[in-house]
């Protein structure tokens, strides 16, 4: 080869190694990006953006202490690992490769570990000994077998599919968007992802038809955009024709991944639950006690509900509500799997969580299928309220919205009135089983809300923009307006939550977003609106400080965050910090006497 040919070959190889790599750049709406840069500074925000494109490099397992211990779980997982061998995917990890030189630094977690240098370690944070970490690794460099005259066979997957694959999933048929021609079952393919691109009209889009043939040439759709967006290599389980004919099933068995993370599918069911560390800490911060009455307002799928119930040793009452029927069923399944009996589930809109005081009982309706209107029973949950708080206690609140909320509750209650004939008909259905048009789903009770001051503690793990979840390959869908709308929705939910906690009780608010407008700004609203609330210290506190100050937007809107002295009372989990968690926020409020407001 001539020196010139050699130089050209080297250039090609360098270009190929940049192309066949994992080095994504997270795209944001420009105004949102400006806002976050104001909040964090450009360097810190760049670090956060980078961290969001990667999964956490360890899995966090919460042990069901009612059934097992951390030591027993560690022993069992190590046994599974020994039996499965280094290449086996029983817990979805190539264990021997954990010590790859480019492992993400887990110093913080490692230092707190009693089993230094092991893949499976017990958390040593006081009070969190029931948490076990399992280490993963990445990003790994993968040789996709590129040669200048023969590019590798390829599969292009959707962003959602790629994000799941980065968390340890396989590539399923519906996730595939395009594929090389002549792909046969058993072929080795390079897997890359199609991420939304800016459209000329200012929006974002994909503009690719499912089934497109990839040639491995610059003329392919998204050829250049996919530089640095290769997530691993796998073996096809179907031919190209099969992939686009089938409607379900695994299409590519991912056997060489950029991130190797353990998956615990079907492993130690009922004994363990895979949960992000900040979520475990949110349940812990609530500090639930045996025998208490606790409300989890937005509970599905039940991760924090079950953590709370276990901390209460399954003694007391945990009410888990969610507005989605099917998600309530998920909570029921999880509670049953973990063997928890103190959890009662309801379908309830958190915006209507406070029941108007027109009686001494919480009225609920029992519902048997997905359709909210299919009420089959109605019952009254009478009985004492937690801590002897009378149902006639006057609610003190200075928020206008509270009054409006109660009025709209009344209307909602009228709308859900069920006639005796309906009840008789539905009771018959219950006895005789579902008719042809009814699904065989679990039973979900509709709640019309709860009486003011009727809970010792309330968790509001609010629906949010989820901009802390990882891995994330695109963030352009959120605009300043949509972020503000999340904030408004959360404040309305908070207005309900605050009424339900008894004086002397506790209210924990959490989100999985990095957006200060849904975090610090909510705390500011809460403290300024409800003078009987104060920020309470949290245990354990391993997250960072909250943001102090304010943000002035170009449209004149001013968002107020924390005041000096408040920042150390909240926990802000930064995805770019050494803890390597999702982005998360926790504020804990002590509820003082409400009557002098
Ligand atoms: C962040 S997730 C909760 C996660 C849950 N706490 C856990 O740890 O498993 C937010 C939940 O709020 C629910 N949700 C959204 N709007 C709601 C509303 N108006 N009322 C009740 N639940 C709502 C969603 O269905 C979703 O399940």
Automatic annotation (TrEMBL):
A Pfam family that the UniProt record links to this protein: Methyltr_RsmB-F
Gene3D superfamilies: PUA domain (2.30.130.10), Vaccinia Virus protein VP39 (3.40.50.150)
Matching InterPro entries: MeTrfase_RsmB-F_NOP2_cat, MeTrfase_RsmB-F_NOP2_dom, PUA-like_sf, PUA_sf, RCMT, RsmB/NOL1/NOP2-like_CS, SAM-dependent_MTases_sf
Keyword annotations of the record: Methyltransferase, RNA-binding, S-adenosyl-L-methionine, Transferase
Domain SAM-dependent MTase RsmB/NOP-type positions: 205-592
Active site: 512
Binding site residues for S-adenosyl-L-methionine: 298-304, 322, 349, 461
Annotated family: Belongs to the class I-like SAM-binding methyltransferase superfamily. RsmB/NOP family.
UniProt-recorded name of the protein: SAM-dependent MTase RsmB/NOP-type domain-containing protein
Species of the source: Gossypium arboreum
């Amino acid at each position: 080869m001539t020196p010139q040919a050699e130089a050209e070959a080297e250039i090609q190889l360098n270009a190929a190694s940049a192309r066949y790599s994992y080095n994504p750049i997270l795209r944001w709406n420009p105004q949102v990006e400006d806002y976050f840069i104001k909040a964090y500074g450009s360097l810190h925000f760049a670090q956060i953006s980078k961290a969001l494109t990667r999964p956490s490099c360890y899995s966090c397992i919460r042990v069901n202490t009612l059934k097992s211990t951390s030591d027993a779980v560690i022993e069992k997982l190590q046994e599974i690992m020994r039996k499965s061998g280094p290449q086996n995917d029983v817990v979805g990890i190539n264990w021997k490769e954990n010590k790859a030189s480019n492992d993400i630094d887990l110093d913080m977690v490692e230092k707190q570990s009693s089993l230094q240098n092991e893949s499976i370690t017990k958390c040593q944070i006081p009070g969190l000994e029931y948490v076990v970490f399992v280490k993963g690794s990445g990003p790994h460099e993968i040789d996709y077998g590129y040669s200048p005259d023969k590019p590798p066979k390829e599969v292009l997957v959707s962003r959602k599919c790629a994000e799941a694959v980065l968390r340890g999933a396989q590539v399923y048929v519906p996730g595939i968007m395009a594929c090389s021609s002549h792909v046969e079952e058993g072929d080795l393919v390079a897997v890359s992802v199609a991420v939304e691109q800016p459209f000329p009209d200012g929006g974002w889009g994909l503009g690719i038809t499912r089934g497109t043939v990839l040639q491995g040439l610059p003329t392919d759709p998204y050829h250049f955009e996919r530089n640095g967006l290769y997530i691993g290599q796998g073996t096809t389980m179907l031919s190209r024709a099969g992939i686009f004919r089938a409607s379900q099933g695994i299409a590519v068995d991912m056997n060489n991944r950029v991130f190797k993370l353990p998956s615990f599918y079907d492993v130690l069911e009922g004994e363990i639950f895979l949960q992000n560390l900040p979520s475990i800490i949110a349940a812990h911060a609530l500090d639930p006690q045996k025998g208490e009455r606790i409300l989890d307002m937005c509970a599905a799928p039940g991760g924090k509900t079950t953590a709370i119930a276990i901390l209460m040793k399954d003694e007391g009452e945990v009410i888990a509500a969610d507005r989605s029927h099917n998600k309530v069923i998920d909570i029921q399944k999880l509670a049953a799997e973990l063997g928890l009996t103190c959890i009662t589930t309801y379908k309830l809109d958190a915006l209507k969580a406070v029941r108007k005081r027109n009686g001494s009982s919480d009225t609920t309706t029992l519902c048997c299928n997905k359709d909210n209107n299919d009420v089959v029973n109605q019952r009254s949950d009478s009985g004492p309220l937690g801590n002897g708080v009378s149902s006639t206690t006057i609610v003190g609140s200075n928020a206008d919205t509270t009054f409006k909320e109660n009025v709209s509750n009344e209307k909602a209650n009228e709308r859900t009135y069920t006639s005796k004939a309906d009840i008789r008909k539905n009771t018959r259905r219950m006895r005789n089983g579902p008719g042809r048009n009814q699904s065989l789903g679990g039973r979900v009770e509709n709640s019309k809300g709860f009486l003011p001051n009727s809970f010792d503690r309330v968790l509001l793990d609010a629906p949010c923009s989820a901009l802390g979840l990882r891995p994330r390959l695109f963030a352009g869908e959120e605009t300043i307006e949509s972020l503000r709308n999340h904030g408004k929705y959360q404040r309305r939910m908070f207005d309900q939550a605050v009424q339900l906690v008894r004086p002397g009780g506790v209210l924990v608010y959490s989100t999985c977003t990095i957006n200060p407008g849904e975090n610090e700004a909510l705390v500011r609203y809460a403290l300024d609106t409800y003078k009987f609330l104060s920020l309470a210290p949290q245990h354990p506190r391993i997250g960072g400080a909250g943001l102090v100050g304010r943000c002035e937007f170009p449209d004149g809107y001013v968002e107020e965050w924390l005041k000096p002295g408040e920042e150390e009372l909240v926990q802000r989990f930064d995805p770019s910090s050494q803890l390597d968690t999702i982005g998360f926020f926790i504020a804990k409020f002590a509820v003082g006497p409400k009557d002098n407001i």
